[in-house]
Write a structure and sequence with these properties.
Amino acid/polyamine transporter I; 411 residues; mainly alpha
Length: 411
């Protein structure tokens, strides 16, 4: 019974933690601009994050190896350090965007000054990580993020054409003469990156070690990844439906995360608005915590420091100092007045750039029978892994030129 409950909670937290500010804004705007033409990218990204998180979780269960210990061992100190610095910068930017988004949500609910709410959000996040255990962090914010199911309800009430929606699983280009091809390509790369954010893999693998997974938990790992991420993808699809049927029909582009709550408010009234805003708060707060902890995990694992939420701060002082510093720096970034949505755009573009550097070492370890023994990658995992490595490498090459050419997707 305990194992069944653990699996059920793991699935729910994976679902509730699937959407953050970057995926929310890019998905809604992708639906608004291109209707369902980018649904295939969302399917591609969901399978991709499943592939690499399953590998990371399996390695954590079998060998207790976190991602950045693998990166250093497999790529060497110099290339590993480059990956570490890049990953830390992306985690910092993402954390900053999430803190800014939390302040925006609270401002809509309270009317208080934005910068004061940034300080309150910083204090709330610091206290949450300081006092909550790893398991309770996952449960509180993952389960709270399930309030985003209100978007699925809203999408169903909008009654999309299911045949047209399903047709989006087949790649199609924008209409000829629309001049939107490069923007379409930018959104394709950005959506792929927003779903396959590398911090999710760092956090997931470290979480498996925090939860003391063993080889017998490999099945648990696969169930959580397959079912939890699939259900999380349904939330993303509902955002695409809202983008197409509600925002696109009214020619509205999301510039603030809170604007996404307009659709539930329109369909479900004040209760729909409140549930959507609360769901976004939990999702964004969870993502801020995951990114700050991921940065701390990465630094500690790379340099061999004691780490983990299962240790008191006095037992892992450099690890604790790292996540505190990340939160403070992230709050300072958005306190300058920079737009959190623009910050997350940059973080998502640079996330795809570092994906190959993160996932290649995972592939090498997961495919090494000397390390993994009977739990080495099978033919399916190996084929999918190397296939996705080619895809993310091509996306990484294209990401920055597309961002420059399209002015961040504005055309």
């Amino acid at each position: 019974m305990k194992k069944i409950l653990e699996t059920f909670l793991g699935i729910l937290t994976a679902m509730g933690g699937f959407v953050e500010i970057g995926e929310l804004t890019f998905t809604v705007n992708a639906g608004s601009k291109f209707h369902y033409r980018l649904l295939w990218v969302m399917m591609l990204g969901t399978i991709g994050i499943m592939v690499f998180c399953e590998m990371a979780g399996r390695i954590a269960a079998v060998r207790k190896l976190p991602v950045f210990q693998i990166v250093r061992e497999r790529t060497g100190f110099s290339l590993g350090l480059l990956t570490l610095v890049s990953a830390s910068a992306v985690c910092l930017l993402t954390c900053a965007a999430e803190i800014g988004a939390i302040a925006m949500i609270w401002q809509l609910l309270s009317g208080w000054p934005y910068r004061a709410l940034i300080l309150l959000a910083l204090a709330f996040l610091l206290l949450s990580v300081w006092f909550l255990s790893f398991r309770w962090i996952e449960r509180v914010f993952g389960l709270g993020g399930l309030l985003l199911i209100v978007y699925i309800v809203t999408a169903l009430k909008l009654a999309p054409d299911w045949g047209t929606l399903a047709a989006g699983l087949v790649p199609t280009l924008p209409d000829r003469g629309s001049g939107q091809l490069t923007v379409y390509a930018f959104f394709a790369v950005a959506l792929l990156s927003s779903i396959m954010l590398p911090y999710e893999t760092y956090f997931y693998a470290s979480g498996g070690i925090e939860d003391e997974w063993k080889p017998s938990d490999i099945t648990l790992n696969r169930v959580i990844v397959l079912i939890g991420f699939t259900l999380g993808a349904l939330l993303s699809v509902s955002l695409l439906v809202l983008g197409s049927e509600f925002f696109g029909a009214r020619e509205i582009e999301i510039a603030r995360p809170g604007s996404a709550a307009l659709a539930p408010a329109w369909q479900l009234g004040q209760h729909g608005l409140l549930i959507a805003l609360l769901g976004m708060f939990f999702a964004f707060a969870g993502a801020a915590i995951e990114t700050a902890l991921s940065a701390a995990y990465n630094l500690a694992q790379f340099f061999g420091w004691p780490w983990g939420k299962h240790r008191a701060p006095a037992q892992a002082p450099r690890f604790a100092l790292c996540w505190i510093v990340v939160f403070v720096l992230a709050a300072l970034v958005v306190s300058t007045g920079v737009d959190p949505v623009q910050v997350v755009e940059y973080s998502i573009v640079f996330s795809i750039v570092i994906l190959p550097l993160t996932y290649l070492p995972l592939m090498l370890v997961a495919g090494d029978k000397r390390v993994m023994g009977q739990h080495v990658n099978g033919p399916l995992a190996a084929t999918l892994g190397w296939g996705y490595f080619v895809i993310i490498t091509l996306a990484a090459i294209a990401a920055i030129p597309l961002m420059i050419l399209t002015h961040g997707g504005e055309g």
